Amino acid sequence: MPVEGGGHKRQPELDRLSNILKAFNDHFGTLFAAADRVARRIREDIAPKVAADQSYRNAKQNTPNSARIEHDKALAKVMLTLLKDDTQVYKQFVENESFRRFVTDMVFTMTSE
Questions:
Q1: DSSP 10
Q2: Is 1 exposed, middle or buried (0-12, 13-18, 19+ CB in 10 A)?
Q3: Angle between helices 97-111 and 17-28 (to 10 degrees)
Q4: CB crowding 21-38: b at 16 or more within 10 Å, else e
Q5: Which residue of 43, 44, 51, 94 pairs with 111 in a disulfide if CB–CB is 3.0 to 4.6 A?
């Protein structure tokens, strides 16, 4: 039996949100006329909707191994709603693999506990 451990799981170290948003601006700031608006939309609109997705929430609680799959499905649904509201962001998400991976990882980090 291990002697150390104290009965609690160690929390992963996550980048501060400001660092994540800075990285977004560094990588993708030239893609958008208002990169801060896009970063704010991801933080204040997209991430909360993904976090509220019932399937994703259930997966995080009951089957953590499938949480990433449910997260990606929820994100795809949320991004599809941007087709009418923010075509430029949706287009980059669909067509730009680097942008899609960055946003997916950023939202997952923001919505994980």
A1: P
A2: exposed
A3: 170
A4: beebeeebeeebeebeeb
A5: 51
Buried/exposed 57-90: b ≥16 CB within 10 Å, e otherwise:
bebbeeeeeebeebbeebbeebbeebeeebeebb
State both tokens at 77.
């649904």
Q: Give pLDDT tens digits for 87-111.
A: 888 999 999 999 999 999 989 988 9
What CA–CA distance (Å, rounded) separates 28 from 92? 10
